[in-house]
Design a protein that fits this description.
The protein is α+β, with helices and mostly antiparallel strands and 485 residues long. Helices cover 28% and strands 15% of the residues. The protein is globular and about 75 Å long.
Length: 485
């Protein structure tokens, strides 16, 4: 039988497009609840979009353990080869609004929620192994320069390049961003990286620093600057369409997961800080170790309910996994859950896409608040008493835990010549691939050509420290595109 059309209270409406009024052409009546019920909800159907990562796509899937890594981590979902865990993954661009183009030159978010038997675990990753900053206090400043000028409400190359060239720790990420990897051909054909250093421990209490890599089984495919621009005009939702259609047709994308490990002594001996988000761990020194496969095999039934309302945070973790002292990661532990409470409300974890597996949550003191829809634990007392018959699950404490000491002090991670080392290595690596060095120079040049001459000169100097040849190529094309009088 067809459903009966009703108002929000469940009362049947015989004529959905009729309104109550005085006479045939008279004014409307405020007693017409059905009309105001509809309009009132319509006025409120938008929630605040994410300040970053606003434009996104998502899918459900499954993670399967392929290799035994119980010697380095004791988390239950990784305890048996072949074990499977349901997941939800959201891909996104970082800087654009929710209606912006999927093919914009921008890092891509790559966040995966694992619905484990020990609660939800979120991998809140990007498609680049490094980032622009390592001081969390810079994040709002950096993001503002990548958005719109407060006066003109336009994207502003002066803001963009003035910030980056004034903060040289950004150069490694900028070289990745303006290579062709800055415009992935699809969400299926890009990798995901933890970027941050995390800490994992085994059930003996032995711990290691780790970084995680999610390597696309489809391979890496990118767009040129011009191809990305054409798609932005002809099909700005290109990546969303590609992901949805491939999953719908049974062409399920997958990623193989690897982990790099480093012990505390190796971290002390490394030529970079393990807590520096602008640096990678060389594979020759810290080899990749395979441990699983992620496959996306189910499209969402409703975009708003399951993609727009998906809430991720690196603070969502499970036993035997925890954050390191990486300062940007530490700040994200607060910021991500704070933004979800702002966007979705204090009970965001009750939304179905965010709900942990049934039976894994029991915290009777967490009550009430807007949109509490889980029964609010009924008559269960809203506190814990010392004699309550409740199970408290514990796991091994880490051995030889790090020791931090010293006075509380303001700290700014100042730039050194080391900022250019890995960027220069990346520039040399690009020479192995046809036209990739040329594309990097071209992509920078067409972007910075619209900036003031003063900013352009800062850009030439910025890239000169990566490679004099790179700087020369950029300068040559910029001056051709915007000749100086």
């Amino acid at each position: 039988m067809a459903p009966t059309f009703t108002n929000s209270n469940g009362n049947p409406i015989p004529e959905p497009f009729a309104t109550q009024r005085i006479g045939k052409h008279g004014p409307l009546l405020i007693q017409d609840f059905n009309l105001y019920d509809s309009l009132s909800h319509f006025d409120r159907e938008r929630i605040p979009e994410r300040v970053v990562h606003a434009k996104g796509s998502g899918a459900f899937g499954v993670f399967e353990v392929t290799d035994d890594i119980t010697d380095i981590v004791g988390s239950a979902f990784l305890d048996t080869v072949g074990k499977k865990t349901r997941t939800f993954t959201r891909f996104s661009t970082v800087g654009g609004e929710s209606g912006s183009a999927d093919t914009a030159r921008d890092p891509r978010g790559f966040s995966t929620k694992f619905y484990t038997e020990e609660g939800n675990l979120d991998f809140v990753y990007n498609n680049t192994p490094v980032f622009f900053i390592r001081d969390p206090s810079k994040f709002p400043h950096f993001i503002h320069t990548q958005k719109r000028n407060p006066e003109t409400h336009l994207k502003d190359p002066n803001m963009f390049w003035d910030y980056l060239t004034s903060n040289p720790e950004s150069v490694h990420q900028v070289c990745i961003l303006f290579s062709d990897r800055g415009t992935p051909a699809s969400y299926r054909e890009m990798n995901g990286y933890s970027g941050h250093t995390y800490k994992w421990q085994n059930k003996k209490g032995e711990w290691l620093y780790v970084q995680v890599h999610m390597i696309s089984d489809q391979g890496i495919k990118t767009l040129t600057n011009e191809e990305a621009g054409q798609l932005a005009g002809s099909n700005p939702d290109y990546a969303q369409e590609d992901l949805f259609k491939n999953i719908a047709s049974g062409n399920y994308p997958s990623w193989t997961l690897y982990v790099q490990t480093m012990n505390e002594q190796q971290a002390k001996d490394a030529p970079f800080s393990v807590f520096d988000l602008t640096k990678v761990w060389p594979h020759k020194d810290y080899p990749l170790r395979r441990f699983g496969k992620l496959t996306l095999n189910e499209n969402p039934k409703n975009y708003f309910a399951e993609v727009e309302q998906a809430a991720f945070s690196p603070a969502h973790t499970v036993p035997y996994m925890e954050p390191s002292a990486d300062p940007v990661l530490q700040s994200r532990l607060f910021s991500y859950t704070d933004t979800q409470r702002y966007r979705l409300g204090p009970n965001y974890y009750q939304i179905p896409v965010n709900c942990p597996v049934t039976g894994t949550v029991f915290n009777p003191h967490v009550r009430d608040g807007a949109m509490c829809v889980n029964g609010n634990l009924g008559s269960t007392p809203n506190y814990l008493a010392s004699d309550e018959p409740i199970n408290f699950k514990s796991h091994s404490l880490q051995e030889d835990q790090e020791v931090w000491e010293g006075a509380a002090c303001p700290f700014h991670w100042k730039a050194t010549d080391a900022e250019w080392t890995q960027a220069t290595a990346l520039w040399k690596t690009l020479a192995r691939y046809p036209n990739q060095q040329e594309h990097l120079a071209h992509n920078v040049a067409v972007h910075v050509a619209g900036a003031d001459h003063r900013i352009q000169d800062k850009v030439f100097e910025y890239f000169y420290k990566v490679s004099p040849e790179l700087s020369s190529w950029i300068k040559k094309e910029v001056l051709e595109l915007s000749p100086r009088k």
